[in-house]
Give the backbone structure.
Amino acid sequence: KNEVEQSPQNLTAQEGEFITINCSYSVGISALHWLQQHPGGGIVSLFMLSSGKKKHGRLIATINIQEKHSSLHITASHPRDSAVYICAVPPGIQGAQKLVFGQGTRLTINP
Amino acid sequence: KAGVTQTPRYLIKTRGQQVTLSCSPISGHRSVSWYQQTPGQGLQFLFEYFSETQRNKGNFPGRFSGRQFSNSRSEMNVSTLELGDSALYLCASSQQGRGNTIYFGEGSWLTVV
């Protein structure tokens, strides 16, 4: 079993729909990262959170440390949100950049 | 403020050769880490450097090595290339490494033939 599990692996939705991507992890962590990767490879860090909820524009990330679960929500989805979304955790306290990654969720938003 | 810069962006090498990839972090960032991304294994941590010292290392053979210079720029080297080393190699930087947002470069696409 992977230390970080994401669901769903693939998600196709219509423009305007509310999107939820889930991430569960099995190790103790100090923070969790949500990343976005567009075709071409570059990765953008969307959120780093250690508790509660963060919001940036149409994106919302939540985390429940006790349940070892995080969700990424996209409100009013748009075709430009089409990308791969990856959650990543730094196990333990060894170092914030020694990340373990989920397998990613490929999101496609159709107009 | 310039982002994380990786060079080269694309390269093709032959089995048995070696390759060096370069990463220039965001100005002021002292922590640099490297990751490998393949279709089969996904994203995997290679190593992390902070102030010229390797702070963490992933589960990769000794053919994979890296270093960081006094200006925080970093290089990674892969010797005796194998076909399985074909991957996207990503570099990321952050100010201190712990508890900071991580900024990724665009990556270096390596193809081994």
About this structure: Chain A has a mean pLDDT of 91. DSSP finds no helices and eleven strands in chain A.
